[in-house]
Amino acid sequence: MQNDIINKLFNGKNIENFFLDLVFQCFNYLENNKIKKLQNKHDGTPVSDADIEIDNILYDSLSRLNNKIPIISEERVHSNDSFLFECYWLIDPIDGTREFISGGTEFTINVCLIYKGQPILGLIAHPPKKKIWLSFEKHLLVSDKSGYLNPIIKSNFIFKTPNIVTSKYTDLETNNFIDNILKKNVIKLSSSLKFCYLVEGKACLYPRLSVIKKWDIAAGHALINSVGGSLIKKDGKDYTYDYNKDTSSPFLATNNKDTLKNITFNTPIASYFT
Q1: Where does the pLDDT of residue 154 fall: very low under 50, low under 70, confident under 90, or very high at 90 and above?
Q2: How is residue 248 annotated by DSSP?
Q3: What CATH number is given for 163-271 in this structure?
């Protein structure tokens, strides 16, 4: 069914070429325009002119593809009831705006197609390295230095000491969860690059026990699904997007459904997740 939805949406168009063209429009804009912060939004988060322009590029291209599919963007007014639609795009034009405005490199462009609450197509683009991750129909493609998309070689993600990837600024409960892991290496990253580390085997677990916006995680969720990973809630069930809030539940994201079985905890994980 998911494949049918994607095929119908693209109607014979080459999916990879569509997204390569879309992403390189964004890359070209960012490369040829200076950063200018506009203001803080009502929730106190910053926004730049680039957030707005990248939003326009994404919105226009996705609308031309099929103007009947709703688009929910961080940079546009929307009703939370829109998350109840059967099918919609969920986008974050620049994930990691603070990092972007400060001149850092850990920011991304996120695009995801949601169908019946599930992420069925995901794109993450990293402008500083001009790198792209694209997943659909259980395929995961990653761009090479020439800009071509190639299938990523899926591994068994075997590790001796687990690499845990997390946000640069974490809450107390997430910190306590990480401290409860007996042996680990911790990698701190901004934006959806954390999911890219998971699918490339650079990390095996991304714990987030505080809420985050849905558009920050949906594309990455699609990516980890394509390599056999999962994003689970505190009740152990798979996370879905079909409820009328724009924030997520606390979650654990892994690149393999057996990851948690292979990590040693000081106290049982059930004290955090059942």
Answers
A1: low
A2: P
A3: 3.40.190.80
**∠ CA 13-17-21, rounded to 5°:** 120
Cβ-based burial of 118 (10 A; exposed 0-12, middle 13-18, buried ≥19): middle
Q: Greater confidence, 252 or 45?
A: 252
Give me the chain's average pLDDT, please.
92
Query: What interhelical angle do 15-32 and 2-10 show, nearest 10?
Result: 60
Per DSSP, the three-state class of 154 is coil
Sign of the dihedral defined by the CA atoms of residues 71, 137, 3, 195, in that order: negative
Alpha-carbon span 225 to 234, nearest angstrom: 18
How many residues are listed for the chain in this entry? 274
Q: How far is CA 8 from the centre of its chain?
A: 24
Residue 81 DSSP one-character state = G
Amino acid 155: pLDDT = 65
- Pairwise CA distance, residues 239 & 12, whole Å: 31
DSSP element (H, E) containing 9 = helix 2-10
- In CATH, the architecture of 2-151 is 2-Layer Sandwich (3.30)
Smallest Cα–Cα separation from 47: which of 39, 55, 57? 39
CATH 3.40.190.80 maps onto the chain at: 163-271
CA 167-204-166 angle, 5° bins: 5
Residue 271 above 90 pLDDT?
no
Query: What is the bridge-based pairing of β-strands 163-166 and 185-188?
Result: parallel
pLDDT at 273: 63
